[in-house]
């Protein structure tokens, strides 16, 4: 083991060498894009399935025939009317209509289990603004996207949960623009996540699509935060021809702060100053946010930001220099309801995070297993919930493939650059339950180092694997994962009493042998229960609410015995769709480990956890 750790450390130093320069998003960052003025392209889109990818290759694999080129800027009906012998086998203008953003699972009953390629088209008029630049930004397309505007191919993006943008200056016209997106949810073993997960693949254009018109030179990437030493820091990168030596003004009006810096040759400017006494630091009890403004040339940028420090002291996590126990819950980005889709609306995020905060007395959420939408992160900032944010490096990834590493690093950068102004986010997770191998270790260490390069003020974590051994009478659980050395916070998913043969009455006597110098989290634990399925008596069966409640009592009792436990995010707040779960009459396509049902009914275990958190909170006061 020592040799493995030495090799890892060596790999770590090698991997951060320039040869492994930071992988950045293709295209602009457009920080706080959701607060920038924009033309929102949500609404009526037409869609057309293409299971055989007819629009991507001819039947012999060559170029796509004219009659199948759905990305062309062609008025098919007009051409057909003018040339009756013309052969078109699509017409995006006349195709079915759906309201986007939303996953195609809810477009029609037939689409409920569709995985593959769907073509989308949006027609729109635009206000042309000479001298300005326009970017087309997608909040997310699951899984891969190829985009055309007025017949011009803009490019592609891979990864279902992070934003991307293309410059469309000069491509727009005033009337009848034709935006075509090929959205493909099919994943291979070379994708992230891989094809097999334990959640529903919500294919489609699942987040906002907006046109942002900005000045020729504008604030593209802006990172404003309280650094670990309590000072306020801002790093700005301008995009545009006039970026060199341009003065940049930073203001926090409520604090009477105004600072100016001059951008360097590459358009980068930075600020660092003491935080004023009257600044109220962000915390779950007091999620104070401030409007921060930047101006450069005639560009105006703003974000709503909280200021706080997150640091470590041995096995303690310190928020604003005070130890904090993370009373958490995990959740997927899925709406409440019997027929959910991928969550989009702020109101839905507020509802679920409100349930966690007010109902469970939580101060922490693990947003699993992929970057959730801006709506969720901003709601966590506003409501005061600390966040674990993660990229979908989940189970088996092609760790030995450099291209897979490259695309994963890009996803990580896209996530961090989109969200690093969110005070709520305390830690970035680089993966979940990934099997130990040399290739995997190197892969994960690279990701951990990327996090430290992109955001040295936050903590790195991952859901690690545990080992079990018998030491005399004792049954001992250890963290047998070499990745433990590369993360700041140790986290494990534990399911003793649900998976495996342990009885609930046995788990209390499990001994956890853990490194003492690092905080330890239960990133998951949980048991399934179908709402309303009850069984009184001494040993209720699995999937009853009674068993789930007993499971929580036993696991929380075990947690009480772990000195370095700094928090937890049980699995999971709400029952969620999973194609892997098919026990008739109980699961029926749902993972039933929620503390509430898919429609929000509270199960017995909800109060068991809420009560435990209430007493934890009282202890901390
Ligand atoms: C795993 C995994 C989750 C999954 C859960 C479960 O640990 O991380 O994505 O849903 O266990 O089995 O319910």
UniProtKB/TrEMBL annotation:
Pfam families: Glyco_hydro_2_C, Glyco_hydro_2_N. Residues 310-549 form the Glycoside hydrolase family 2 catalytic domain. It comes from the Bacteria. The keyword Hydrolase applies. The keyword Hydrolase applies. Keywords: Glycosidase, Hydrolase, Signal. Residues 107-213 form the Glycosyl hydrolases family 2 sugar binding domain. This is Beta-glucuronidase. It comes from Sphingopyxis jiangsuensis.
């Amino acid at each position: 083991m020592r040799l493995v750790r030495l090799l890892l450390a060596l790999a770590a130093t090698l991997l951060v060498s320039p040869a492994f320069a930071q992988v950045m998003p293709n295209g602009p960052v457009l920080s706080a894009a959701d607060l920038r003025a924009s033309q929102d392209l949500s609404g009526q889109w037409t869609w057309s399935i293409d299971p055989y990818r007819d629009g991507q290759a001819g039947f012999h694999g060559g170029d796509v025939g004219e009659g199948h080129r759905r990305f062309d800027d062609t008025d098919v009906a007009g051409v057909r009317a003018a040339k009756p012998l013309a052969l078109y086998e699509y017409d995006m203008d006349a195709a079915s209509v759906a309201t986007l953003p939303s996953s195609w699972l809810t477009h029609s009953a037939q689409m409920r289990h569709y995985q593959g390629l769907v073509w989308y088209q949006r027609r729109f008029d635009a206000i042309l603004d000479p001298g300005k630049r326009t970017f087309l930004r997608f909040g997310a397309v699951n899984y891969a996207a190829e985009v055309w505007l007025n017949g011009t191919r803009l490019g592609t993006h891979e990864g279902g949960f992070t934003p991307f943008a293309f410059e469309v200056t000069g491509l727009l016209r005033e009337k009848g623009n034709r935006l075509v997106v090929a959205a493909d949810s099919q994943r291979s073993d070379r994708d992230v996540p891989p094809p097999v997960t334990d959640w529903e693949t919500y294919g489609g254009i699942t987040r906002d699509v907006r046109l942002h018109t900005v000045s020729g030179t504008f604030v593209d990437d802006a990172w404003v935060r309280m650094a670990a030493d309590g000072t306020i820091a801002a790093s700005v990168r301008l995009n545009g021809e006039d970026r060199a030596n341009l003065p940049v003004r930073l203001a926090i009006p409520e604090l009477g702060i105004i600072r100016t810096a001059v951008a360097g040759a590459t358009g980068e400017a930075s600020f660092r100053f003491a935080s004023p006494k009257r600044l109220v630091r962000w915390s779950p009890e007091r999620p104070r946010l401030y409007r921060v403004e930047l101006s450069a040339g005639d560009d105006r940028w703003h974000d709503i930001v909280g200021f706080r420090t997150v640091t470590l002291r041995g096995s303690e996590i310190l928020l604003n220099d005070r130890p904090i126990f993370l009373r958490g819950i995990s959740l997927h980005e899925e709406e409440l309801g019997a027929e959910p889709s991928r969550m989009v609306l702020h109101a839905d995020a507020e509802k679920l995070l409100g349930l966690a905060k007010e109902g469970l007395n939580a101060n922490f959420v693990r947003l699993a297993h992929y970057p959730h939408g801006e709506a969720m992160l901003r709601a966590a900032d506003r409501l005061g919930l600390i966040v674990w944010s993660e990229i979908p490096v989940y189970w088996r990834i092609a760790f030995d493939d450099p291209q897979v590493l490259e695309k994963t690093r890009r996803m990580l950068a896209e996530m961090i650059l989109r969200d690093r102004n969110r005070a709520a986010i305390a830690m970035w997770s680089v993966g979940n339950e990934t099997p130990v191998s040399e290739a995997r270790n190197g892969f994960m260490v690279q990701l951990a180092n990327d996090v430290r390069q992109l955001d040295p003020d936050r903590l790195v974590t991952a859901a690690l694997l545990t080992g079990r051994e018998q030491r005399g009478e004792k049954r001992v659980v250890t963290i047998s994962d070499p990745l433990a050395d590369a993360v700041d916070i140790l986290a494990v998913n534990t399911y003793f009493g649900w998976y495996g043969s342990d009885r609930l009455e046995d788990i209390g006597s499990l001994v956890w042998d853990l490194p003492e110098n690092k905080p330890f989290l239960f990133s998951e634990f949980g048991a399934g229960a179908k709402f309303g399925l009850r069984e009184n008596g001494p040993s209720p069966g699995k999937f009853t609410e009674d068993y789930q409640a007993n499971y929580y009592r036993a696991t929380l009792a075990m947690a009480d015995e772990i000195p370095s436990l700094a928090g937890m995010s049980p699995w999971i707040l709400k029952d969620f769709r999973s194609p892997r779960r098919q026990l008739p009459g109980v699961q029926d396509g749902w993972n039933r480990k929620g503390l509430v049902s898919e429609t929000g009914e509270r199960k017995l275990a909800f109060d068991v956890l809420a009560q435990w958190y209430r007493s934890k909170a009282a202890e901390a006061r």
